[in-house]
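User: Can you predict the 3D structure for this chain?
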Amino acid sequence: MPATSANVGVGFDVLGVSLDLFASFSFSPASELRILGCDERFRGSDNLVWTSYLTACRELGATARPLEIVIDSPIPASGGMGSSSACVVAGIVAAQLLSGHGYDADEALDVATRIEGHPDNVAPAIKGALVSSFVDEDGSVCALRWNVAPNLRFVCMAPPYRVLTSEARKVVPRTVPTQTAIWQVGRCVAMVQALERGDAALISRCCHDRLHEPYRAQLIADYERLRATSYAAGACGFVISGSGATMLAIADGDEVADHVAAAATAAVEGLWVRVLRADDRGTTYEVAGPDAGAAGTGAAAGAGTAPAGAAAGAAPRSSR
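Assistant: Here is the predicted structure, written as structure tokens:
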């Protein structure tokens, strides 16, 4: 499961991008629930992977079985890089595969959106790349996907503190002037084109949010310092990842990205910094055991199949 970054600045609750930092989850039948690989406080029956599996089983009309779940996730838990979305999608995909229902990316997206309440993280987690999504009136999710240009890098900066999503939601105004909406819509469309083309100059022009970042920035102690540091080091854009506290600097090429990463590391003590690319595959899975060989990806158009009882999970891949 890839890390994800929602909003991408001007795409508030609309855009999300998949990044090449991957969590893996493995599932196998067990006599009772066992969860390994995470903090002790997350190993109970309220674990998000497990509860998402149970929800998906109910929606599929499938029988839930006790599982051993092994989690290996390098995604920061400080918020903003889709750690919870990765857990949700992993549980849903496990339910599809272990029930014999077969992997269905569109169905997984609908279920994940109902669990999360919005698709901006789960859509790129499933489909990969850059995704624009919305929920239709009937509750189904529409998600449009674009590949991100290979020259762009995302310098991820996670501070050693959290911003609660509930608090980040509270500070955003409930209404905005028409001129602010016009400002935002034009730049959101431009951002999609800029990321697809790898146009650093256009990113610099359109990466100026007015809906949420001016308010959420006040909740992130190091925002102004890291923003100024990133632009001084050559970044073409700087955004809050999701609701924070993680932030992303967008850079044109490895040299600029490494310069930004070094400057950010020096600017804030205890900062988690990684240079990432966009991931174009999204969710991947492999089936182990006697049915080994079945595999698939969320970016593929079709649905894979796997018989009940097979072990399933997001296939671990190394960061590129």
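The CA atoms of residues 131 and 314 lie 20 Å apart. Residues 300-320 have pLDDT under 50 and may be disordered.
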